[in-house]
Amino acid sequence: MAAAATGRRVVFLTKHFFVLGIAALLSLSALSTASAAPAKKSVKAAVAHKSASAPAARSGRPALARQGRETRRTAAQPSGRTTARDTRGARLTLARQESRRTSGLSARQTRLSLRGASTSQVVQARAPRLSFGQMAGLHAVDDPLDLKSSVALVLDQDTQEVLLSKNDHAVLPIASLTKLMTGLVVADARLPLDELVTITEEDIDTEKGSRSRLAVGTQLTRGELMHLALMSSENRAAHALGRTYPGGLQRFVGLMNARALMLGMKDTRYVEPTGLSSGNRSTAHDLATLVAAAAREPLLRQLSTSTGYEVAVGSRLVQYNNTNRLVHDPEWQIGLQKTGYISEAGQCLVMQARVAGRKLIMVFLDSSGKHSRLADAERVRRWVEVQRPANTVAGSPNAV
């Protein structure tokens, strides 16, 4: 009896726990179903939203692309504060890329914006600048010698006979031909040439950013500065000559203009003594007058035709050479010369030289190539020699 009762209790308990297990499983299944329903609704809503916004997304792709590029650009920036070196590097890279893209276009200005984590810079890239003569169409004028200079004048210094002229009354920037007047004003004043002059920060070129081997603090004599200005077209030397003139730079520039008026150079204007500014302007006729006046100064003839000169800059010796290679050519007898270049003026050259027994003044402005001004001078020399053979007795190279 006891064994039978025990067996019935075991069966009862087994059924009871089985029922409880089934109930627990059903409860868990119900909970899982209830929680999955909202998720399915969320997925359906997201799909519906995506379908509804597809046209807007397509129309906004350019904006998203731009945003992506900005994000990548920002991520490329180093963390923390952007340094000046980082900014300069990025600016140069963008400027080079834009310069290549715009090469050959008109001289319009292109602006590029660079925005970093902590800086905002604007980079400006320019297409190659045209000279004033090119913009005026002067290169379209033909001449018998097919010169590359848009302005030319060749005349006999003694008789004033004009052998060749081309756009000779056009008023154009004259670049470093300016330094001939700078030297003439200094020579007129008869200032002591052995007086020491110190190069200062005021002599640094802020107009074009040109380089110079005359460091701030360099001391040279006034005569040495004139030598470098006329022979090598040294800009800091020319500026220092004007700056240290009695009365200062403004008085010096005023004297340059006054001297031009005295010589009858009515279409000439100077604004500074180096030629870096395109505000220094003249004509071929006026420059021929200046060459004739400067050629009467033995010092200017000597310094401008010197082939080379060595000066002490600090603890080292620096060699300077003439910017006109024709002074080395034995076929030339050059009494005075000066070269010049800025982008607004093109390549320029003035010379007084003896050719075929005649003292000629040559002016070439706005030449289109680096060596074309010298090639133009060679064309003129050969042409004059053919027209009138040289006398049997050659004159002195520095004859006036």
Brief summary:
The protein is an alpha+beta fold and 400 residues long. 44% of the residues lie in helices and 20% in strands. It has a domain at 134-387: Beta-lactamase, CATH 3.40.710.
Describe the structure.
The chain has 400 residues and is of the alpha+beta class. The chain has a domain at 134-387: DD-peptidase/beta-lactamase superfamily (Beta-lactamase, 3-Layer(aba) Sandwich), CATH 3.40.710.10. Helices cover 44% and strands 20% of the residues. The chain is built from eleven helices and 13 strands. It has helices spanning 2-59, 61-76, 84-102, 132-135, 178-189, 222-231, 235-243, 249-262, 284-294, 298-304, 372-387, and strands at 109-115, 120-126, 149-156, 162-166, 172-173, 196-198, 219-221, 281-282, 308-313, 316-321, 334-342, 346-355, 358-367. A hairpin with a 4-residue loop joins strand 1 and strand 2 (120-126). Helix 5 packs parallel to helix 9 and helix 6 (222-231) packs across helix 7 (235-243). The longest helix is centred in the N-terminal third of the chain and has 58 residues, at 2-59. The termini are far apart.
Question: Main attributes?
Answer:
single chain, 20% strand, Beta-lactamase, two-stranded antiparallel ribbon, 44% helix, alpha+beta, globular, disordered C terminus, five-stranded antiparallel beta sheet, 400 residues
